[in-house]
Give the backbone structure.
Amino acid sequence: MQGHKVFNLKPSNYSAMDNQSFTLSKKLVTISMVMVAIGIVSLAYGYFAGLGPGRIAANILLNSFYFLGIALVGLFFVAVHAIAESGWQVSVQRIGEAMSSFIPVAGILLLLLFGLGGMSALYEWTHEEHLDAILLKKVAYLNVPFFMIRFVIYFAGWILLAHLIKKTSRKLDQHGDMFYFNRLRMLSAIFIVFYAITSVTSSWDWLMSIDAHWFSTLYGWYVFSSMLASGIAVLIIILIALKNMGYMTHVNPEHVHDLGKYLFGFSIFWAYLWFSQYMLIWYANIPEETIYFYTRLKYFDNIFFLNLILNLVVPLFILMTRNSKRMFSVLLPVSIIVFIGHWIDMYQIIMPGVVGKEAGIGLLEIGLTIGFIGLFSLVIFYSLSKAPLVPKNHPFYKESIKYHTNY
Amino acid sequence: MNKFITAYYNDEEDLLKGIKMMKSNGVEPLDVLTPFPVHGLDKALGLKRSRLTRVAFVGGVVGGLVGFFFQAWVFTKAYPLNFGGKPFFAVPSFMPVTFEMTVLFAAFAMVIAFFVHNKLGPGAKPVIHDERVTDDRFLLVFDIWEKDEKEVSNIQMALTNAGAQGIQLKA
């Protein structure tokens, strides 16, 4: 089709495409390692400064779950587009696949946390001898053996499907065969159904059961939408980092624009679910439900409103215009703000229930998060170096390169 | 009132080429009518971005403010009612209506602005350049109102050179 020549594709995009396999630079590894070391040191500080098992366990849970959610969204990104048979995402698909390689790492960390006594510090319902009438009713679901069985099912499913989807995507890239294309679509469909259920139940298990007396039917979706927004933000951050390192030259403003639209849309989606949960509880005014927001508004009021400002107000007004979604200089700061914002969202989900009003953001919180960022980037960039960054033989590769969006 | 020259193409690639040639001849098309969105058409025509989004923003802001402050006035001044012991000025309960009013005003502002700007809507006189434009024809429309016969024949010549498959004069 001759008409496609009018798209703003610079000729240089084609010539640079040959050198598109990512090599892990020593500098990147060193920086990541230093960050991981900071994390370990701050964990040791938390232990020796006597911050208590609750606060340490809560911090590990917070970061493990937060980065697990981001990793799952990487896989979700690949799967949902494979089902929709869309084309534009092919140019950034490898980043999503690489993000999913953090799932097993998060699984090991959570297993260590739950196995090494984190459960009794985190979850009131594990103290079987002190259960009250309400918790006794929930014993059928909230008991340690079933909890661990569910844990194994979640991670077995996620890791297996992530592995299969990644493998099929690589094969598709090598052969460009429709067989692998259809297989990728089928695996993606299975993953999406599995993820739709497990993202909800896992957030009940690991997050909502912290406040075991309290419940909210919207909770799973609320956590899922938080994952979505932070996952897309991280995808954009990785993309910009790769571009700054001289890779991903085939990604043009059209692709960035669409990622910006995702960030904008999912931020509003998150706010919608946040508000739906909040307003129903506020309106019904039933004590057993309002206790959740009562503690958050009384002892965590700054965090509570900061959460809304960072995750709704900032992306809503800054990403509203077309140009801001297409410029890295705007999109990168907003992505980082949303990344921090959803960390704070997780913070206000977990901390009030586990630590109570003594909770604060200190050296342990900041240091451990830096450590997790280092670990995450180590895993992600190692995974990126394992496969060519450009899926050249993907059936939709050309469509992706020529992709064009108006609004 | 208006006079047009219309030329049709059977293929969108030919249409894009034709537009390019006409523009290089210094003749600006008034409009292009196609049965489906043609990629690259905006650029070929040199169209600026639509300003409809700004209308939507202004409409949305007005709608949001109207929605919010109308409720604030009703529930605190005009007709205060006690709902389950909630304060009269209860911001969370105003939010759904504020949101809906924002969407409603933005949508109406866009539709009305679109109709006004394009002279469409109830009571408008439709100009049908070619009935097959909704089927398989790609139409180039030129405004020849206030153009003398020589200019018109020049346009027709240029169109024939630009590979138009059929040219019509409409008054």
